[in-house]
Design brief:
The complex is a heterodimer of chains A (about 375) and B (about 400). Chain A has one domain: Ribonuclease Z/Hydroxyacylglutathione hydrolase-like (Metallo-beta-lactamase, Chain A), CATH 3.60.15. Chain A has twelve helices and 15 strands. With about 375 residues, chain A is α/β, with parallel strands linked by helices. With about 400 residues, chain B is mostly helical. Chain B has one domain. In chain B, about 65% of the residues lie in helices and about 0% in strands. In chain B, helix 1 crosses helix 14, helix 2 packs parallel to helix 14 and helix 11 crosses helix 12. The chains are: A alpha/beta (about 375), B mainly alpha (about 400).
Chain lengths: ~375, ~400
């Protein structure tokens, strides 16, 4: 019995509860007493549908600054609509039998942008209608990953969705009802910040750290699983679903929306809980230099990623261009993107020629 | 620190707890107005609000502990004038906070000397991430570190050195002299422990102005939360030995009732050693509970969080020590000094754990508007703790405990 397992059983006794009083953390400890085998896949391909959640950092941060900063409830800020984009990816998994299966990760923010992405820049819309996209994993409830839900539901309102159970009433209203959320600006003027005219009628799998059978994960298909990390996140959001794949002959790959729990913590979790753990790669927003700022702790992450010996790092979105560039310079195997994003009608003001981001229109295969 | 001589009037164990509850609700109201995500000011960004709160606390400490209320009277002649004195000094402290933050640091030092104290100077310098929000957070971070160093030296100096070496000097001379002495050591501490971190808040790092954080190789992080945790743990022992141990054992080195150099040196070294021990013990406990952190880990896996969390726990214990001293008459009082000091320390530690439980419970989510959970990068209990301490110190120092009995000076 290792220390963590021992402590998990201690936590179950409630001894630790008196010290921390944090039920979510304890739940996380109680489950996962033994390692789980999630199976294997032949390969995983991620198509970056859109990673530009907003186009101008300065406008986004001004909205944040003007209405109370990172702890503010996201539904109370009158976000600049024209600055909104969205985050979404198409995941294609090839099983050991050679069959391909597809699902969607996240559904973006601005409906006009997401409709453009799903219909003009990809054939996600038709794949949703035909059922080729089997289900959707909602990584977390942040605006840029979720508020574009109508763009998905208009093509398949009964799609099965895996989402963190740590939602608020506003989230569920937007998902399940015909909803219009309003925020007030400084002059008291009401601003429509998101809407959905197509209520979700399908199954909602509310993910918790316990997992579906108390083993800490939700199995999507052999070799692919979702793990919910119950962590506090900015803008009053809580909890994130993380995708784990075990790629045959390569190792563990994480695919994330924002990776709020921390990329190395995800691999640390896999090391402690998955049979045959071997680190291989990651894709997604890695939530580091979100606003292209810097802190000494970001240098720590570069050193840490090197020590975990990841073979393939595909990053974008909230990773921050500045971190990705610095990581690449430090020898981390950052997979470079292309200039396809320039063919889109809008692109990020922080995109650089270094192409260290896998951005809109790019893909990566593990 | 707060006067612990027996009050002139008997302490009421009914009024004390009622006052305790009233202050809790006052802090709640202040939090709602200034910090709460659904409140009016929404200053908990978090660093901007943090810097304002900690600078207000600095202003309270500057007035009461460094200046010894100079040029105001040390105490009111009777009970009647306490409210007026309290209102006046609170207003002065608030004005001092505004002057320190917006005039001295932002407009003077930040504009004409050290750019990172001024959001405007950071934005004007241009480059990656130099936009108003980041700039304000980074300038606030620098202020918080400076304030931490100041609080440490001001409170430790007051406890250890007292009036030494200006025992025979006028109040004005002593106030100015202590100010310069405390500021000298504050600046040295800031430069060594915190400035390297602030220089590395920018990209590219300002490595001609500050060395790469020298603790990064053995601490597993370049973040100055390492230093912050250590300083706050030491500060907790300054408060404990002052409030709960009645100034002992450092007082044993006094001569003729006055502090000496050796009293001060022993206080600094002693509280630093105790702080270092508690820092290490708390890290070990966290390692047992969360396993060892690793470089590059985030949330509870992050070394920088573990260091910060030692300081946050230190803050909870400081708060509990103040609550015990002010609202519960520093019980127990009937035992011998070593025994009552020991029991009070146990009570303060237990109280600190109770506050810890409260802060991370769903009750605090409801009251403070924080997201449930621990180690969120945009949340530190230090802000609420400092706000609470500010209110308690204002009552104790400026209002001379009103409505509780006035302490004898």
């Amino acid at each position: 019995m290792d220390r963590r397992t021992f402590l998990k059983s201690m936590a179950a006794t409630g001894v630790a509860a008196s010290v921390t009083g944090t039920g979510g953390l304890l739940t996380e400890r109680v489950q996962a007493a033994g390692k789980v085998d999630i199976g294997q896949v032949k390969s995983v391909k991620v198509d970056v549908l859109t990673e530009t959640s907003w186009f101008d950092n300065d406008i986004f941060k001004k909205n944040l600054m003007d209405y109370g900063g990172a702890m503010t409830n996201q539904y109370t800020i009158p976000w600049e609509w024209n600055n909104a984009g969205g985050y979404s990816a198409l995941i294609t998994v090839t099983g050991l039998d050679g069959k391909e299966r597809k699902f969607l990760m996240d559904t973006g923010w601005n409906n006009e942008w997401m409709d453009y992405i799903f219909t003009e820049k990809s054939n996600v819309a038709s794949m949703l209608k035909s059922g080729e996209i089997e289900f959707m994993v909602q990584t977390h409830w942040h605006l840029d990953h979720f508020w574009g839900i109508e763009s998905t539901l208009k093509h398949k309102p009964d799609i099965t969705i895996y989402a963190p159970k740590t939602h608020y009433p506003e989230d569920i209203a937007l998902l399940r009802e015909k909803a219009r959320h309003i925020a007030k600006d400084k002059e008291g003027k009401e601003v429509l910040i998101c809407k959905n005219d197509v209520p979700h009628t399908g199954k909602l799998v509310e993910c918790s750290p316990d997992g579906e059978k108390g083993e800490g994960i939700y199995r999507l298909m052999p070799g692919a699983a979702v793990r919910m990390f119950d962590v506090p996140i900015l803008l009053r959001v809580r909890g994130e679903n993380v995708l784990y794949f075990n790629v045959k002959d390569k190792g563990i790959v994480t695919v994330t929306g924002c990776c709020h729990p921390g990329v190395l913590s995800l691999f640390s979790y896999a090391r402690s809980n998955f049979e045959g753990y071997k680190p291989y790669g990651c894709y997604g927003g890695l939530h580091i230099t979100l606003f292209e700022n810097w802190e000494p702790k970001f240098d720590d992450i570069i050193k840490g990623v090197k020590s975990f010996q990841l073979q393939k790092v595909g990053c974008n979105h909230c990773t921050g261009w500045v971190w990705a560039e610095k990581a690449a310079e430090a020898g981390i195997p950052v997979v470079k993107g292309t200039n396809k994003y320039k063919e889109y009608k809008k692109h990020s003001t922080v995109a650089k020629a270094s192409n260290v981001f896998l951005t809109n229109g790019d893909s990566i295969t593990f | 620190m707060v006067e612990l001589s027996r009050p002139r009037q008997p302490f009421s164990y009914v009024v004390g707890p009622i006052n305790f509850a009233a202050v809790f609700f006052l802090v709640w109201a202040l939090w709602y107005v200034f910090m709460h995500p659904d409140g009016s000011m929404k200053l908990y960004t978090p660093m901007y609000g943090f810097s304002l709160v900690v600078m207000f606390l600095c202003a309270v400490v500057l007035l009461s502990k460094v200046w010894d209320f100079y040029p105001f009277a040390e105490s009111t002649p009777g009970d009647s004038a306490r409210i007026g004195r309290g209102i006046l000094l609170t207003g002065v402290a608030f004005a001092l906070m505004l002057i320190l933050v917006y005039v001295i640091f932002r407009e003077f030092i930040g504009r004409f000397g050290v750019a990172y104290f001024s959001p405007q100077s950071i934005v004007a310098s241009g480059g990656t991430g130099a936009e108003p929000y980041n700039a304000r957070e980074n300038a606030s971070t620098a202020l918080i570190y400076f304030a931490t160093a100041f609080l440490w030296w001001a409170l430790a100096w007051n406890l250890g050195f007292g009036r030494w070496p200006w025992i025979g000097a006028t109040r004005g001379v002593a106030a100015w002299s202590r100010t310069f002495a405390v500021l000298f050591f504050t600046i040295v501490t800031f430069v060594i422990l915190f400035h390297p971190h602030v220089c590395y808040l920018f990209y590219p790092p300002q490595n001609k102005a500050g060395v790469e954080p020298w603790w990064s190789n053995f601490a597993g992080t370049g973040s100055a939360y390492f230093s912050l945790g250590l300083v706050l743990c030491s500060l907790a022992w300054v408060i404990i030995s002052d409030l709960l141990w009645e100034g002992y054992p450092w007082k044993l080195l006094q001569r003729n009732g006055e502090s000496t150099f050796w009293t001060g040196a022993a206080t600094m070294v002693g509280t630093l050693i105790l702080g270092g021990i508690s820092f290490i013990v708390l890290l070990k406990i966290m390692n047992v509970y969360w396993m060892e952190p690793f470089e590059g880990g985030q949330y509870t896996d992050a070394p920088y969080f573990r260091y910060l969390h030692t300081g946050e726990i230190g803050g909870f214990v400081i708060l509990a020590a103040f609550m015990l001293a002010i609202y519960f008459n520093n019980i127990p009082n009937a035992l011998s000094l070593p025994l009552r000091a020991f029991v009070r320390t146990l009570i303060a530690v237990a109280g600190g754990l109770a506050i810890y439980w409260f802060y991370y419970s769903s009750a605090s989510t409801l009251i403070l508007g924080k997201v449930p959970g621990i180690a969120q990068p945009d949340d530190t209990p230090l802000v609420w703790t400092m706000l609470y301490l500010s209110v308690i110190m204002v009552q104790a120092e400026f209002f001379q405990n009103w409505p509780l009995p006035k302490p004898a000076r």
